[in-house]
Amino acid sequence: MENYHLKNNSEEKQYELHIDGAVARIEYILAKSKIYLTHTEVPKKLEGKGIASAMVKKALEDVERKKLDLVPMCPFVAAYIKRHPEWKKLVLKGINIQ
User: Fold this and answer.
1) Distance of alpha carbon 50 from alpha carbon 55, whole angstroms
2) Residue 10's closest CA among 47, 46, 35?
3) Which of 38, 42, 65, 93 could form a disulfide with 24 if both were Cys (CB 3.0 to 4.6 A apart)?
4) 4: Cβ–Cβ under 8 A, 6 or more apart, which residues?
5) What is the pTM of this model?
6) DSSP per residue, the chain
7) What are the tens digits of pLDDT across the range 39-89?
8) How far apart are CA 88 and CA 77, in angstroms?
9) Is the pLDDT of residue 4 over 80?
10) Beta bridge partners of residue 40, listed in sequence order
């Protein structure tokens, strides 16, 4: 999953990954210097292949590159950060990942 490009569709306010005619996505809200990752969705036919985790990693790399403060509202994103604590540095101060 390293050799794909996660597209930031700013019109739809989501990161997108197009695979085999399907679209996996991470929806977000951008407000000044904060990004709220609100929902991760992978089509049924793509489930179980590690796509959601790979998308979250690429999205977090983009958040870091843009120097945004992250508010992980999506439970999947929060769980990913809990499993990969090196990304906690992006989370807005005062927000705890449970």
Assistant:
1) 9
2) 35
3) 42
4) 17, 19, 54
5) 0.92
6) -TT---EEETTTTEEEEEETTEEEEEEEEEETTEEEEEEEE--GGGTTSSHHHHHHHHHHHHHHHTTPEEEE-SHHHHHHHHHSGGGGGGBPTTPPP-
7) 999 999 999 999 999 999 999 999 999 999 999 999 999 999 999 999 999
8) 11
9) no
10) 26
**Rounded CA separation 73/71 (Å):** 6
Q: Measured in whole angstroms, how far is the alpha carbon of residue 49 from the centre of its chain?
A: 16
User: Among residues 13, 85, 94, 19, which one has the least CA distance to residue 5?
Assistant: 19
pLDDT on residue 47: 93
Q: Which two tokens stand for residue 93?
A: 């101060």
